[in-house]
Amino acid sequence: SCVYVLGLAGCGGDSGPTPSGLAITTDSLPEGILNQPYSASVSGSGGAPPYTWSVSPALPANLSLDTATGAITGTPTTQGTTSHTFTLRDSSAPSQTIQQTLSLTVDPPLAITTTSLPDASIAAAYNQPVETVGGIGALTFSIVLPGTGTLPSTLSLNPTTGMISGTPTAPAGTFPFTVRVADTSGQQDTQPLSVRVTPTTPPQITTTSLPNGTAGQPYSQRVQATGGIGTLAWSV
Description:
Blueprint: E1 2-5, E2 8-11, E3 23-24, E4 32-33, E5 38-41, E6 44-45, E7 52-56, E8 63-65, E9 71-74, E10 80-89, E11 97-107, E12 111-112, E13 120-121, E14 126-129, E15 132-133, E16 140-143, E17 155-157, E18 163-166, E19 173-182, E20 188-198, E21 204-205, E22 225-226
Parallel strand pairs: 4-11, 13-20
Antiparallel strand pairs: 1-2, 3-6, 5-9, 7-10, 8-9, 10-11, 12-15, 14-18, 16-19, 17-18, 19-20, 21-22
């Protein structure tokens, strides 16, 4: 075909309008959970569809990339964080390509790893965390109610950190309860635990001798003691 523009003639094929710039619009991938189904996708814009996707190095074991749609699916069987470069190719002539490197993290399932707690003593400050692994986003801790028991009245569970803290008071005893942790993806786990509150040891004087004094000279020596609850009262 021939085209006449401003009196000038030109002949040849018409390649059509130049496609707009090709871009990958995905800037991050959601976290996955070990041995649980995963579904995500990478997306592009511009250029001339249809698109063709590829990735290097290969995705973690048991995950695959749909080269036509950019969908990432499968059930990951390997834990950890890996880096992958995604390449997008369009259908313009000549074709355009663009690359984007993204990280993919596969976490272990959310679980409470604390299986027991140390004893607490009456009148002594107590601080012990409920430890966890896995989980996506912020974690929320709570005591499972009803029927599983409760913490001693002067101890509390921090709902965002999982720290059990406070200062136990009488009576002594063993207090069973169950802790639940949940994440923002809907995972949760529970763990039966207990805190044994023990009486504090009775006061015990640790000073066994005193230095001699000198007649007419000031004398000052402290008698030391351990144990007991609260302020100690001394007498002779």
